[in-house]
Amino acid sequence: MIGSIVLIIVFTFLNAVFACAEIAVISMNETKLKHLVENGNKRAKKLAALTEQPSRFLATIQVAITLSGFLNSAFASDNFAGLIADALMKTGIPVPRSVLNSVAVLVVTIVLSYISIVFGELVPKRFAMKNSESLSLGLAPTLYGVAKLFSPLVSLLTVSTNLILKLFGMDPTEDDDQVTKEEIQMMLMEGNEQGVIDTQENEFIQNVFEFNDISADEICTHRSDVVVLDADDSLEEWKESIFKNRHSYYPVYKDSKENIVGILDTKDYFRLEEVTKESIFEKAVEPAFFIPENIKAAKLFERMKQTRNYFAVLLDEYGEMSGIVTLHDLVEALVGDLYEENEDVTEKIQKLAPNIWRIRGDAEIDDVVEQLKITLPEEQDDFDTFNGLIYSIIDRIPEDGSQFVCDAYGMRIHVKSVEKHKIVEAVVELMGDENSPMKEEKSEK
Questions:
Q1: Can you tell me where the transmembrane regions are (predicted)?
Q2: Which of 79, 282, 343, 396 is surrounded by the most beta carbons within 10 Å?
Q3: CB burial string 65-80: b at 16+ within 10 A, e below
């Protein structure tokens, strides 16, 4: 009796060990394992040898678990079913012995299943999930020895499994899918929700992934906002523009704004002892660094580092300037907005009250959608800014100084200021979950 109980405990323990090992090894971080192998960790080397062929490893574990479970059931039924049947017979129940034997086997199976599931599966697997590294390394020598012991049987099972997989049109030798960018991003979002990764870290890593997908024209200063210098203007006009706008670089054009002849570096400009047009063009104006507007940000970043250019001029497919981009812009695309010490900081999207927002016309439409939690139609790809959204709603170009109200996509948009035919600022009130534009309500000055 006692010997039978000891055997059940032993087999349940073995089941627990292998179930624990299975989860621990699967949960082991591959990068950490490679690092340990490179550092000469002997246990890590054995573990790596086991996981080189995942199908063989899983087959080994399955054989060990199945064998321990089978032996456990066999010994329990053989030793306890008869005792239970005898006990039932003594009660005087008018039931045939064969039926009582079947009932006894059923009782033993249910009790043993409970013990095996709780102590042989659930508890060890939960424990393994919490201590995957220490357990997988600790059990590595044991698993390595078991793998050698069951090698012939595992080979037979592996061949059988591969043949069945081929019947279903699957290639058993094909490598498992590598971790994708999307999977990493999903893990980041989950980590952020659980508090393991804070919001700033999450945004920074997400920006790194997106850096290779966004194009230069998405982060550039648009041509309409670029301050340029006319090569034919007087030195006084140049000086006035430089002091007024306080930029570090200015594109210089000749005859037409499409004909950029160079870039003025104000650091060199202010170092000049004699300020003349000739000396400025000779010592302070550098050749323009032209790039196509659709170049990816990551590629542009590498190119600007290689050429040691801080300032680039974007050209569209017709060879005309579409905007400018600096290394500062590229860094901001990675880490977020960076402001200089005396720079006037105005948020493009400000929440004034529940469901009420102040939005600048140059605010990115993706940021507006994200912060206001609104839904726009697929046509939103036709514009990049909030200004473009309003243009699409009113279907015209507003006059300077005009103010008006329009309803669209669950928003009531109060346009407060228009300059140079562009929306400077608007106050937006969320009205409801509407999906189509409504008629514009005009109230123009």
A1: 6-26, 99-123
A2: 79
A3: bebbbebbbebbbebb
Q: Which fold has domain 349-441?
A: 3.30.465
Widest Cα–Cα separation across the chain = 122
Please indicate whether the domains covering 216-335 and 349-441 agree at the CATH topology level: no
Domain definitions of the chain by residue range: 2-167, 181-210, 216-335, 349-441
Residue with tokens 């945004």: 203
CATH code reported for the domain at 216-335: 3.10.580.10
CA 98 vs. chain centroid, Å, equals 63
Note the pTM of the prediction, 2 decimals.
Answer: 0.55
Q: Mark 104-120 as b/e (b = at least 16 C-beta within 10 Å).
A: bbeebeeebeebbeebb
